Fold this protein.
Amino acid sequence: MIKVEHIVKQFKDLKAVNDVSLEIKKGEIVCLIGPSGSGKSTVLRCINGLEKPEEGCIYLNDQLLDENDKESYAQLRSQMGFVFQHFNLFPHMTVLKNLTLAQIQVKQRSEEEAQKIACEYLNRVGLLDKKDEYPSKLSGGQKQRVAIARSLCMNPEIMLFDEPTSALDPEVVIEVLEVMQELAKEGMTMVVVTHEMGFARTVADRVIFLEDGQIVEENTSEEFFSHPKTKRAQDFLNKVMH
């Protein structure tokens, strides 16, 4: 479904992503893990078009993401939902308005249809009773669940999560992970940058371990956590699993 070929992304002197290639199949859940600054989030942002790699190509369903072809580029990007670390909700809009805005502007849905869809997804993440609240009244976990619902309203084919729990208090992390686990059960294709090793181990089909902008190891989640092949992955797991 997604094919990344030899992408390089440079910020001044730093090669944040250095010749990364990977594939994500339909219905697969892939976790990108690794130490801070290893390039995981940059890879994800390149896939979504939030960053433009200097080299390499990215394909979605065999179509090249090419920003010179504006129409096809926008259409391909709209098939991907992106959930940010810091929610990115509009503070001056109610929860419901946050969920209907893009539906009306991008999907050209009527206000009525957009609200109906928004309420369905709010109900799914357990927050229908908050639809008229403003984001400032919500906890971090609630904001992140609203952000996930907002992405789902756009009927994406694939969901990209950029450290969706790292800005949350530990006790609310679980409510966000539960929503993601539900999506996984329903067969949503997902790429997740995460520090939650328990989630990666339980939910991911595959784990891709990065360091210094490169893929160091890639395996099924079971194999990666039970028998990491590289010394670097072993050291990393020893640190984070204890």
About this structure: The chain has a mean pLDDT of 93. Residues 33 and 195 are 7 Å apart (CA to CA). The radius of gyration is 18 Å.
